[in-house]
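Interim report to the steering committee. The following record documents the input for MarR family transcriptional regulator (170 residues).
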Amino acid sequence: MNQDGSGVDLDKSLGYLLKEASSALRAAMEEVLRPLGMTVTHYSCLELLAQRPGLSNSELARGAFVTRQSMNVLLQALERDGSVTRPAAAPVGKALPARLTPRGRRSLEKASAAVRSVEVRMLAGLSGAEQESALRILRSMIHSLRDGGDGSHDGDDGGADGGGTGSTGA
């Protein structure tokens, strides 16, 4: 809390703790991905393409929480190293749908194992029921913020809004 008594008590601020957890998760993920020559954004891109082949640059950027420009630079690098392929011309509109190559799948396999180890470590102190509750609560928070939540819960667990990329939202 500020010296004058106003402001937010950071020790009790859920938003601050979520940001701190996100920062710690990202640092731990970067640590295990670095030896594989990857960043969290690189991993997120590969994971998104494995789960949703054919995503455009814009869709990948949204899913990895980066700008379109940053994603375009990454996709060009992934194309050069043979991890991703995109058509020379857009089949429809302007979007160039990206797909993983066999090399990209092999890279993703190693990265996914590394990221899973971080998530296991992060959740080690929680029971299965607590992990399920945490997922439900976080999805509800995301749903409330994205939909301008009025405080009511319509029964939707926010699954469609939940990210779908495992731990990549850090």
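Residues 127-162 form one domain. The committee is asked to note this result when reviewing the revised timeline.
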